[in-house]
Amino acid sequence: MKLKIAVIPGDGIGPEVVAATLPVLHAAARAEGAELDVLDLDWGGEHHLRTGAPMPADAAEIVSDRAAVLFGAVGRPDVPDHELVWGLIIALRQQLDLAVNLRPVRSWDGVTTALRDDRDIDLLIVRENTEGEYAGVGGRVHRGRPGELGVEVAVHSRPVIERAAHHAFRAAQARSGRLALVTKSNAMRFGYTLWDAVVEEIAVSYPDVECEHVLVDAMAARMIQKPRGLDVLLCSNLFGDILSDLAAVLAGGMGMAPSANVAPGRAPGIYEPVHGSAPDIVGRGVANPVACMLSGAMLLEDSGLPNAAARVRDAIADALRDPANHTPDIGGSGTTTRLAEAVLGGVG
Ligand code: ATP
Ligand code: MG
């Protein structure tokens, strides 16, 4: 089998973690009798300085025949953040209609977490990726005047909630069969009550999934006090954004958190570490490549190579058991290269 993917290393530590990840993905695929065919795309900050845009106008078309896209990060000090974030990653998510954002978080043997005792976290945040509080609806009124207003309208639509909910229920079936819908429907009476109603309707078709409704404030407390037992969390755009950073830090930090942006049932998705370009550590050889490698494992899994994905995850777990392989963000003094070589050696 030949798996065609596209790779956008981007800026900052993006190219460093992608360079550490690709050999691991190649080796894992090869061990399962598959070959990766990689289209390398030089999109990002440098492309923006050269051409005035971070990616070409026909970007979505260029990646459309690929099974998936692996993305590093964008952001550099001499280009305004929004040019790159909106011009590349958000534009690409919209053009490919990637409506669901998946953020699995788990704790790893050998990696100390921010939790006091209950260290077992293994959950999946399914975040609606296109609307809610980030719909971009609103405006500023009476600019610069004493009564100035900033109005931000949250938009929640039934088809988009349904799409995210079906994805979450199916994910729960493949995991431990528990789903928590996270809302704030006691205080926000229109959008989140629609979430409650739609999810209740859909739950009927998934009798094997145990579904509870949890308010976001209670969920934040529970993730810290008693994360054990949480499985799939279905969240709106804003709550998913906040809770996934919280979960990532609880389980070892931003350097450990992978994600996938997918259009349920369709390719290609974009697989990327949750972290950004991390300009403070660029070029020092200490970026943690695990978030990117785990994103690569999600890519392999969704592209029909679940055994190759398992190889990557197992090799990461083995490498992390030895503190000498830990990068500084998880309390060690190891380098990107050392950790990458340890994982590569374990992939087989
Ligand atoms: P961006 O604007 O691109 O989001 P940022 O400055 O917000 O970049 P992030 O990458 O989001 O930086 O992460 C915040 C901080 O976390 C970084 O400055 C860095 O110190 C640390 N960090 C993030 N990712 C990693 C990683 N993979 N390895 C080690 N440290 C990391
Ligand atoms: Mg950031």
UniProtKB/TrEMBL annotation:
Names of the cofactor(s): Mn(2+); Mg(2+)
Domain of life of the organism encoding this protein: Bacteria
Keywords: Manganese, Metal-binding, NAD, Oxidoreductase
Annotated Isopropylmalate dehydrogenase-like domain residues: 4-343
Statement: the UniProt record of this protein carries the keyword Transport: no
InterPro entries: ICDH/IPMDH, IsoCit/isopropylmalate_DH_CS, IsoPropMal-DH-like_dom
PANTHER family cross-referenced by the UniProt entry: D-MALATE DEHYDROGENASE [DECARBOXYLATING] (PTHR43275:SF1)
Protein name: Isocitrate/isopropylmalate dehydrogenase family protein
Organism the protein comes from: Allokutzneria oryzae
Taxonomic lineage from the root: Bacteria, Bacillati, Actinomycetota, Actinomycetes, Pseudonocardiales
